[in-house]
Every structure is written in C-alpha cells, then in structure tokens.
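Q: What changes when iron/sulfur cluster is included in the input?
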Amino acid sequence: MATIKINHERCKGCGLCGNACPNKCISLSKQFNKIGYHWAFIEKEDDCIACGFCYLTCPDFCIEVYK
Amino acid sequence: MNKILSKPESLKDVSLSYCPGCGHGIIHRLIAECVDELHLREKTIAVAPVGCAVFAYDYFNFDVTEAPHGRPPAVATGIKRTNPDKFVFTYQGDGDIAAIGMSETIHAANRGENITVIFVNNANYGMTGGQMAPTTLIGQITQTTPFGRDPKRDGYPIKLCELLATLDGTTYLERVSVFNPQNIIKAKKAIKKAFQCQIDEKGFSLIEVISQCPVDWSMSPLEAIRWVEEVFIKSFPLGVIKDKIDEK
Ligand SMILES: Cc1ncc(C[n+]2csc(CCOP(=O)(O)OP(=O)(O)O)c2C)c(N)n1
Ligand code: SF4
Ligand code: SF4
Ligand code: SF4
Ligand SMILES: [Mg+2]
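A: The predicted holo structure follows.
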C-alpha cells in the first residue's frame, strides 16, 4: 500500500511531479484551483510505489508520500 | 500507512511567490532538509539576495536577513565573524553573485570565510524580466540579447566555480542541477557536504545549482527541464570542481 497526498490549493499545475512519476500515476485536473491553476491529483493510486520522485520534483512542496 | 516524505520543518507552511515549475522552490526544500538533518535550524542565519529569492525570509523557518544586491557574502562575513557559533549561508542568483556582487564574492572566497554559498544559476536576471546575466549561454535569447548572446559584443558565460577554484581560499566547490529526481538527490548531497564543511570549520564552500526559469525562458516547465538537460549543462558541466576538505 502506498499513496500520496497533494495540497490542491497550493499546486501550480507545473506538471513536474507527473513527468517524474515512473508509473504515470499523476494527472492534472480540468478544473482550476483558487489561484488559477489546473491542480495535480493521483489518478492511478494502485500503481503508486512510494518512490518519492513526485515529492522530490515539486517546487511548491505540495506533496506528501505515504507507505 | 505512515507518512514517509513531507515538508521539512525548516520551511514555513506558506505559498511561494515563484512561477510554476521554477527551480528556486526545489532548492529551498533541499536546503531546508539539510538544515533539519544536520540539526542546524536553531543556529542558522541565512542571507537572502535581491532577485526572485528576495522573499526567502518569508519561506524559511529560521533566521534570514536581507542584503543589498550582490552583497550577501560581505554581510555573511560580518555575521559569521561576530557569531562564529552560528551556521551562516547565503542564497544568491547569477546576477546577484556574478554581476553586481562579483567583487564581494571573490573577496569572501579569497579570504576563505567559513561560510556556505548557495548559488542559483538560471542563466538570466529572473526577477527583472529575463535580461542577460554573466552566465547567459552563447546564443541564448534574452530580453537584452534578442538575437542571442554574441561573445564579440556580450563576452562569454562566466563559470564561477572554475574561477573561484583558482583561489587558495576556497575549500569546496560543486556544480549540480535539479532537472530530475536523480540530480535532485545529488544536489542535496552536495549541499549537505558544503554545510558540513562549514560545521567542521574548513572554510569557504559554494554549491552552484543549475536551475530552470521557465517563465523568463519563454518555455513550459517541462520544456525548461529538457533545455537544462540538453543545452544548459553542456555549457556548465556538473560535478565537483574543487575539494580540499581533507587538506584544510
Ligand atoms: C542595486 C540594484 N541594482 C539593480 C537592481 C535590479 N535588480 C533586481 S533583481 C536583479 C537581478 C536578479 O537576477 P539574479 O540575481 O540572477 O536572480 P534571479 O531573479 O534570476 O533568481 C536586478 C538587476 C536592484 N534591485 N538593486
Ligand atoms: S510516489 Fe512515486 S509512484 Fe507514487 S505518485 Fe509519486 S512518483 Fe508516482
Ligand atoms: S509538481 Fe507540485 S506544483 Fe507542480 S503540478 Fe505537481 S503538485 Fe502541483
Ligand atoms: S522569473 Fe524565473 S527564477 Fe523568477 S520565479 Fe519565475 S521562473 Fe523562477
Ligand atoms: Mg538569475
């Protein structure tokens, strides 16, 4: 069991986390958050292996990793 | 399930003013992780620059003061000499450190001040809208080099680590980048080693971090990290430029 939590309201939709994820678990929402960005969310939670790559690449420290 | 990775204590729980995908936030987090892991938070005094990182004092959860443009190494010298028990680092952009502040940089390095410098090289003046910096690549288009940097008119990119390596006063100099997870891990190791260099009173250390500035490069964040990997680090090769830790 592994997953991540993303702080949607702080996310700037840069896509670096999804780009770094080896299992392409992360997608960008079609909706905007309060600061006007398409926030990232974990779409394929079952494929998360808690590698932490998304945490490492996020410039806005939005991500927490759980295992 | 347990939380295995989350924001380090040395960062405040606030939003950053940086553009989406900017390398500054990643570098802030790496510094904060190192400060936490070396238990330095209560004794750290950082010096923020003029540049996009001017508000660093709002983001770090330890003491940060602000210096005039280019002067952080001089301010850090004064802080460290009067408070030798504190942990003192500067955080500076390429314009700050290698243009207006070049004199302060070279003299602090030459004196072998026992401070650490985190130098964020994003190949332009980010804050003021993307003008040419001393580190701008040959041929790179900026607001002030609209047809590309031409060495005949604009000179050559300054490789600060190599320049400072010639000075006997410097102890540890390394160039790293943050364009992918592997390099982010290496960058953290380098920052931690430079911090340890100061703790062990071995003198001047500087880590140059090659960083992305998507907005002023007119690129998306993903294009920007690709440009770092395929173009930027070809002109600024990564690696340890100088390591005299064992000799000091
Ligand atoms: C004495 C002085 N001269 C010029 C400026 C204008 N200025 C503000 S930031 C900056 C350059 C910042 O570039 P850099 O140090 O590379 O930092 P970045 O924003 O790219 O991180 C300049 C020239 C200033 N604030 N003060
Ligand atoms: S922890 Fe690894 S596998 Fe899980 S979402 Fe993040 S990058 Fe993907
Ligand atoms: S890296 Fe961070 S800011 Fe960028 S899309 Fe992912 S969660 Fe959002
Ligand atoms: S201008 Fe460049 S360096 Fe400054 S916050 Fe934006 S992306 Fe980052
Ligand atoms: Mg810059």
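Observations recorded in class: Chain A has two helices and four strands.
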